[in-house]
Amino acid sequence: MEITKNAPTAARRTEWSLALLGGLKHGGEFTARERTVHVAAVGGAKLDHTDAELPAGPTHLVKAAVVGGAELAYPEGASAEVDAFSVLGGVDLTVPAGTTVEVRGFSLLGGRSQGVVGEPGGAVVKVRSYSLVGGVKVHQGS
Prior knowledge:
- By secondary structure, this protein is an all-beta fold.
- Helices cover 0% and strands 58% of the residues.
- The chain is globular, with a radius of gyration of 14 Å.
- The mean pLDDT is 85.
């Protein structure tokens, strides 16, 4: 069962998603909130902000799951912060060319890969990931 609270107006800044089993998925055209919080026993978060209407400042994703990771995609010029904790699962990011990605956190098992080159003054995606199994992967999109 998944409980998702979406705001009827753009005034709400945080979207909450709580699930025993199940993930959170957004893609296509939608209005992204400043902060998205997803908590699940089993289930990750898949957010594709490529065609989304983004807030003026950065978007924030907070994801906590026993099993489940986060898969995220950002458009040109996006600014984001990701804070993830997983017992099993990781974070998979796709960012446009020229995006600077800052990765911090702790992984007992699992690694971090970051094969992107940023530009001074360009968009920044900040990731803080804490996991027992899993890691962070950053991909550069087209």
